Amino acid sequence: MLPYALLFFLGCLTLAFALNLLRLFSAPTLTDRILVLDTMTVNAIALVILYGIWGGTHLYLEVAVLFALTSFVGTVAYCRYLLRGNIIE
């Protein structure tokens, strides 16, 4: 039962990536594009966790946490640049 659920989840992630790419190219403002990139990183984190479940190892959970922290800092840096024009004061 687990392999079928993982395949279904992989299909859902593929659809989410396709819809995110569509929104990335059709977003009207830069803030919408930043939000789409943040959503794509969340989908990539879910893909890493899916691969970890599929492989049966816990190492990928730590990779996903590190990737989440890095993407959060990147999103904050983009937003600070948009608001103030620089990242470091």
Report on this model:
The protein is mainly alpha-helical. 87% of the residues lie in helices and 0% in strands. It contains 3 helices and no strands.
**H/E element string?**
HHH
Sheet having the most strands: none
How large a portion of the residues is in β-strands, by DSSP E? under 5%
Which structural category fits the helices and strands?
A: mainly alpha
Q: How many DSSP E strands?
A: 0
Instruction: Compute the CA-based radius of gyration.
Output: 16 Å
Helical percentage: over 70%
Low-confidence stretches: none
**Could you state the oligomeric state of the chains shown?**
single chain
Overall pLDDT: 91
Q: Key features?
A:
89 residues; mainly alpha; flat
Topology:
Elements (H helix, E strand, L loop, with lengths): L1 H25 L3 H26 L3 H26 L5
Task: Explain briefly what this protein structure is.
The chain has helices at residues 2-26, 30-55, 59-84. With 89 residues, the protein is mainly α. The longest helix is centred in the middle third of the chain and has 26 residues, at 30-55.
